[in-house]
Design a protein that fits this description.
The complex is a heterodimer. Chain A is mostly beta strands. Chain A contains no helices and twelve strands. In chain A, the strands form three sheets. In chain A, strands 2, 5, 6, 10, 11 and 12 form a six-stranded mixed sheet that branches. Chain A starts with a strand and ends with a strand. Chain B is mostly beta strands. Chain B has strands at 5-7, 10-13, 19-24, 31-37, 44-50, 53-56, 65-68, 75-79, 88-95, 106-107, 111-115. In chain B, strands 2, 4, 5, 6, 9, 10 and 11 form a seven-stranded mixed sheet that branches. In chain B, a hairpin with a 6-residue loop joins β7 (65-68) and β8. Classes of the chains: A mainly beta, B mainly beta. At the A-B interface, β5, β6 and β10 of A face β5, β9 and β10 of B.
Amino acid sequence: AQSVTQLDSHVSVSEGTPVLLRCNYSSSYSPSLFWYVQHPNKGLQLLLKYTSAATLVKGINGFEAEFKKSETSFHLTKPSAHMSDAAEYFCVVSSANDYKLSFGAGTTVTVRA
Amino acid sequence: EAGVVQSPRYKIIEKKQPVAFWCNPISGHNTLYWYRQNLGQGPELLIRYENEEAVDDSQLPKDRFSAERLKGVDSTLKIQPAELGDSAVYLCASSPAHRGSTDTQYFGPGTRLTVL
């Protein structure tokens, strides 16, 4: 079985300040981990993906995430938030060689001017 | 490269009416998924196709939901009759994955269904 817990349902940051979105996972096998972003009335867009290569994964739009097996975490960060980062973010896990994705409940990010 | 295409984008119907959603995956992607996303939640898988074969429909409510992918390309998801609780966003995704592999799934914009 696999599952994801996103520790914050809502994060509010000022433009230009760092963003941290926390995610803990549970997986019986070597996991693949993803972060997706969903802007209002838009589809889910892949930000980045971890599949057992480098533990620090760089994604699009300046986002990155670090896989920490000892902490079963995959937190998403960005050093400087932009107004366009306001969206819903989903942490997702799947087990190795398994297509099934388990989504977290999502974290809503608001960016203050 | 065109992404996953879905239509319609929005649909409002009265309960007990039928409704259908259409999806065209990314060219060359043999695997297609339908998800349902309730308000404030992450998507949940309804059905997965490899080419024209439904390889996982365990989460599809078969009493009222049906899906098809006759030529292994585009797909239709149908609800008949719709109930109030079916109001949600229906997402289609595709990937080049084959059975037993993990590959990135690419999502369409979704169809927002409102049942009155």
